Hints:
By secondary structure, this protein is of the alpha/beta class. The protein has helices spanning 2-18, 33-46, 64-75, 86-93, 99-125, 138-144, 184-193, 198-201, 224-241, 294-307, and strands at 25-29, 50-56, 80-84, 131-133, 174-176, 250-264, 267-280, 288-289, 311-316. Helix 1 crosses helix 2 (33-46), helix 1 packs across helix 7 (184-193) and helix 4 (86-93) runs antiparallel to helix 5. Residues 2-203 form the GMPS ATP-PPase domain.
Amino acid sequence: DWKMQDVLEEEIRTINSMVGPNDHVICALSGGVDSTVAATLVHKAIGDRLHCVFVDNGLLRYKERERVMSTFESDLHLPVTCIDASEQFLTNLKGVKDPETKRKIIGREFIAVFDEFAQGLESKLGKRPEYLVQGTLYPDVIESCPPPGSGRSHSHTIKSHHNVGGLPKDMKLKLIEPLKLLFKDEVRKLGSILNVPESFLKRHPFPGPGLAVRVLGDVTEGNALETLRQVDEIFVQGIKDAGLYDKIWQAFAVFLPVQSVGVQGDQRTHSHVVALRAITSEDGMTADWYYFEHKFLVNVVSKICNNVRGVNRVCLDITSKPPATVEWE
Ligand code: XMP
């Protein structure tokens, strides 16, 4: 793609003229497409004066940390520090049921962990890093400042979306936003030129607060997170095996704080209920539920009930957005 090749070269020139030869750059990787492509691009321009951090907040999906770290290290050779802060996040989330409070706590803890990483880096380098890379896209720019009269609604007023973009403003870091003029499909093309694996570029979006908005209520209760990871993995892997992954915008499981009566063998059970949600969408602002074949659903549900301890009932969410939102919280 010659156009994206041009964009790439232009961006590398811009970064090199901006970042001095002794300057250092910091970047928080979320495991998503945007921050990964942005970091890979900056790394190509300035090499190991880029310092990335990936935070395990204890709210990641099944084997997520291992999977993204392997892409960062083996495929992209990015300099990444992985910080396991799961205990810190989960301790702070204990007993918290309100979705917006959960988002706030996660945002706050993320900043605390990032701050500590930046300070550690400062003492290692003997100077502060000057720049921060962010994977801001063009639609994010428009959405946070919609042109007057555009009629564009502002989804942030419905949910205070936390993602790794939400970093402290008082850190005095100058911003590098190499994707600021691009749309998502262009970022994917750019990523492909930068050798980001195709499977990674096609990943479904994943919310910044992670599984915290998919375990309804207190995320630390019982075995909820681990149970949700297993259910989610069976569902998403089933979708991949059926060749449906690229037709779906997002697919995930939700853990409900509800128990129902069931029967297994000749034993009465009183176990948890989970919901499955798969949607198609253009931009996440509106969405339709995805229509699965009967056979696919039968298979997935029996796999879940036979393999995941503590789950005896599976529901399918067939609500579009609006009136529902994509996530349940
Ligand atoms: P909703 O639930 O608002 O979701 O219809 C629209 C899209 O945004 C994602 N989402 C989030 N992303 N931080 C994020 O980075 C959040 O707090 C958050 N909440 C929802 C959701 O997964 C969907 O793609």
